[in-house]
Specification:
It is built from 14 helices and 14 strands. It is mainly α. The termini are far apart.
Length: 523
């Protein structure tokens, strides 16, 4: 048993289908002579009230009352639609589906249940559509998008402006032609044509709006858009916020003025260090070179030379190799330099203490002690760097968000704790060297290198203490420039404070570079 329940919205379709599919003699006059008072079916009364906009006496309302004498022929043609509509189309398919199912059941002569035959029906209707039930036992069907063009006499014209076909290929299942749409005369968009987004006015009809600029970081590339959208991570909006522009890469390159300046400065300090090293090699047998442990002096000069050169690893586009090398190489080489300074300071103190009668410190004075200090301190730093590289090493990274119009190409340090451990260990060595040199600054003039070491470590600590806040407050290529400047400044401070007085005597005052002069100064 199939029960068809027709509501008011389907009534028009039912009439249309009845007249359209089978021309029943006398049906139209019968329809026009319907009277709601003489019909027992309450549905006719509901239809009558909706069609004529009135209410019967038994209903309390402020609308006018229905008399029952209203004429159906006075209604617009829409109430007696003769063409296939959405409602009549559904009824048409339902009736024909039942007919095909009955035909199949009669064909096999199995007078049992109709449902299995109904579930397997498949036919093409007169509109050219394939009718069948899907796995959810629903009729598969598309939709025509109809533009209802109404006229003052309550007549209308239906214009097909698009369709929705679920059986069509993906991308072509929905289509609509906006150019042929006719809008109702009472529908007007109250507002200007927006080249960016629009925002509905509060308290106004839905079609009233104001033009609003897109929020920062968003764009609108079409007119009268309700919402703006964001650019991709590697793009940013232009000034008009209607187009996305690719972000430029931000890193310290050799082509930029800042990169060139720092590279030339590093090479200049390297050349100066090499010149000082050459001077000391040439005058290695003079008293002023021999007085302060030549091997430590050479080790310090070579490590300073490498410190200046390793700053070049920070310039250029970050690569995996340079990211792994630049912090670890700088940390180990600088630790060798600072531990050499510490060894020179302790050598000064031990040498003075060894001159006292009966002192047992003489056995500690020598190259073995200073070499042990340098190797031991450098080994600790090397161990920290190896652990860093094995657990969470640095790697090239892209920062899309720190700068609005640029992509920062940087070396992600991996473990920030290991990075600050490397810096902290160098700071500890410098602090110990400074304290020891400060207390040894008043030793006899023969050992006055402690005064220069005090100044060099003071410069070193000042530079790196100012580096930390600068490092944390800058972004992009400037953070790299700050670290390069700190490396060059601290290395130059050690080079200048310790070696410039000696070079001055060796080059410009050679008469002071003799044992007699050293003995006179010691007295």
């Amino acid at each position: 048993v199939i029960e068809l329940n027709l509501d008011i919205q389907n009534f028009h379709g039912a009439l249309s289908f009845a007249i359209h599919s089978s021309e029943v003699k006398g049906f139209h006059p019968f329809l026009l002579n319907l009277n709601p008072h003489s019909e027992a079916d309450g549905f006719i009364r509901l239809f009558w009230q909706q069609a004529f906009g009135c209410q019967f006496l038994d209903v309390e309302t402020e609308e006018e009352f229905c008399t029952g004498e209203e004429k159906l022929e006075s209604l617009p043609g829409a109430f007696f639609e003769m063409q296939m509509t959405s409602q009549s189309y559904s009824i048409y398919n339902a009736v024909y589906a039942v007919a095909h199912a009955l035909h199949a059941m009669l064909f096999v002569k199995e007078y049992t249940l109709l449902q299995p035959f109904l579930r397997n029906i498949l036919f093409n209707n007169s509109a050219g559509d394939t009718v069948f039930f899907n796995e959810k036992r629903e009729l598969e069907g598309g939709f025509d998008i109809i533009n209802w063009v109404t006229f003052p006499n309550k007549s209308f014209l239906r214009v097909k402006v698009g369709k929705l076909d679920p059986q069509a290929p993906l991308g072509s299942d929905f289509s609509i032609d906006e150019k042929i749409i006719t809008w109702h005369q009472s529908f007007n968009q109250v507002g200007p044509s927006c080249s960016y987004s629009r925002q509905r006015k509060e308290g106004e009809p839905f079609c009233c709006y104001d033009c609003t600029p897109c929020p920062e970081g968003n764009i609108s590339n079409q007119t009268d858009m309700d919402n703006c959208f964001q650019c991709q991570e590697d793009q940013y909006p232009n000034q008009e916020r209607n187009h996305c522009i690719s972000k430029k890469e931000n890193f310290l390159s050799y082509e930029s003025p800042l990169g060139i300046s720092l590279a030339l400065l590093a090479l200049a300090f390297s050349a100066t260090t090499a010149l000082v090293f050459g001077i000391f090699i040439k005058h290695q047998n003079t008293p002023i070179v021999k007085a302060n442990n030549r091997n430590l002096t050479y080790t310090l000069l070579i490590s300073l030379l490498l410190c200046f050169l390793c700053s070049l690893l920070f310039i250029g586009r970050p690569q995996l190799l340079t990211c792994n090398l630049r912090q670890t190489a700088f940390g180990i080489i600088f630790s060798v330099a600072v531990s050499s300074v510490l060894a020179k300071t302790l050598t000064v103190v031990l040498a003075f203490m060894a001159t006292k009668p009966g002192s047992k410190m003489r056995k500690w004075v020598g190259t073995r002690f200073s070499t042990s200090i340098v190797l031991g301190c450098a080994s600790i730093q090397a161990s920290i760097c190896i652990v860093w590289l094995c657990t969470d090493p640095p790697f090239p990274d892209l920062d899309m968000h720190s700068l609005p119009e640029e992509v920062i190409v940087e070396c992600n340090e991996g473990s920030a704790n290991m990075f600050y451990s490397v810096l902290g260990y160098m700071g500890l060595l410098a602090l110990v060297s400074f304290v020891v040199a400060f207390f040894a600054r008043k030793l006899p003039d023969t050992f006055n290198e402690a005064k220069f070491i005090t100044f060099s470590m003071l410069v070193f600590c000042s530079v790196w203490l100012s580096f930390v806040p600068s490092y944390l407050s800058t972004k992009g290529k400037y953070i790299v420039a700050v670290e390069i400047f700190s490396i060059l400044a601290s290395s130059a401070g050690i080079l200048g404070c310790i070696f410039s007085p000696k070079c001055y005597i060796i080059v410009f005052k050679p008469e002071l570079n003799s044992k007699e002069q050293l003995k006179k100064r010691n007295k």
